[in-house]
Fold this protein.
Amino acid sequence: MISTAIFPSRYVQGDGALELLGTEVQRLGSSVYVVIDGFAHSAFGADLTRIFSKVGPFQIEPFQAECSDEEIERLSKLAQAATADVIVGIGGGKALDTAKAVAHHLRLPVAIVPTLASTDAPCSALSVVYTPEGAFKRYLVLPKNPDLVLVDSGIVAKAPVRYLVSGMGDALATWFEAEDCRATRAANMTGRPGPMTSHGLARLCFDCLIEQGAMACTACGEGVVVPALDNVVEANTLLSGLGFESGGLAAAHAIHNGLTTLDETHHYYHGEKVAFGLLSQLWLTGRPRAVIDQVYSFCRSVGLPTTFGQIGLAGVSGTQLEQVAERACAAGETIHNTPFAVTPPMVVAAMKVADAEGRRLAAASPDRLG
C-alpha cells in the first residue's frame, strides 16, 4: 500500500512572530497582494503597512465575509491587476481559505497568517467553499500546501477565548476521524491513505488538548502567552491541520457540513459545529463509554457545545434533522470513511442521542460550563 502525507513548506510560530512576516515573505516574492479580514485590517493595518513597505510594492484588500466562488473571482482579478507575485492571507479561516484559492487560481505562492487559532485551515492544501449565504458548497483541493504559515501567538492570545475554544472543537475531532480512516484504509486529502506519522500527529493533537486545553483558555482569558497556550495554538493550527489532511476526515466534518444547511447554525463557529459532529460520531461508531465520557467532560470544561440548543437548534424538528443527515450522507462525503455503511436514519439517531446526553449532563451538574 502506498501512503502519502503533505505539509506546509515553512511554519513559524511564537509571541511577536508578526514582526518576521516581511522577512519571511521576501523568500516568496516582492510584489505582495494581501487578502485580509475586516477585524485584522482594523487591528493590524498600520503594522502591516510598516512591515510590507520594507518588502516592495503591496496592496491590501479587505475580504468580504464568505469564501465563495464569487469572492475568489473578485480578488483574483484585483490581484492580477496589481501584478502581484505573492499572495498573503491574514485573518480567520474563511479569509485564509480565500487567499489560498486566489493564489491557486493565479499560480502564485501564498503566505498564511492566522490571527485566530479557531480552525485547522491555515496549513492545509484545501479551501472550503461556501455559498454567498454561508452554506457549505464544496471542498477545493489544492495542488500544494501554503508556502508559509506564520502564527503570532501573542495576537491569538488577545482574541476572545471563544475562537480558541472553537479551534479546539475542530482539533478534537482530528484523531477520531483519522482512526476511522485508518480502520477503512480510506483516502486522505491526497487520494491515498495516510502514513503512521499522520495518525501519530493526530493523537498528539488530542493528548495536548486534553492535558492543556483548559489551561490555554485561562491564559487566553488574560490575554497572555504561556507554554500551554502556545502548545494548544500549535495543536489547533499545525497538528490538527496535518492530522486531518494526511490522516483523513470522517463523520464529524460531514455532520458539520449537514448542519450548515440550517440557517439557525450560521452564527456558530466551524469548530463548534464540528464538536457536536464529533459527539454524534462517537455515538454513531459505538466508542467505549469511557471515551465518550472523556470527550463530553472536555467539551463542558472549555465550553464547547454538547446540545442542539448550543448550536442554535433548540426545538429542532425531525424534518430539519433529516435534512442535516441527508446532506451528511451525500455521495462523496467523508462520512463514508466510517468502518461500516452509514445511512441518514443512523445519523439522525446519533445526533439525537448526542444531544440527549449533553442535556442529561447539564441537568446533573448545571454549574459546569457547556
Remarks:
- The chain has two domains: 11-157, 161-364.
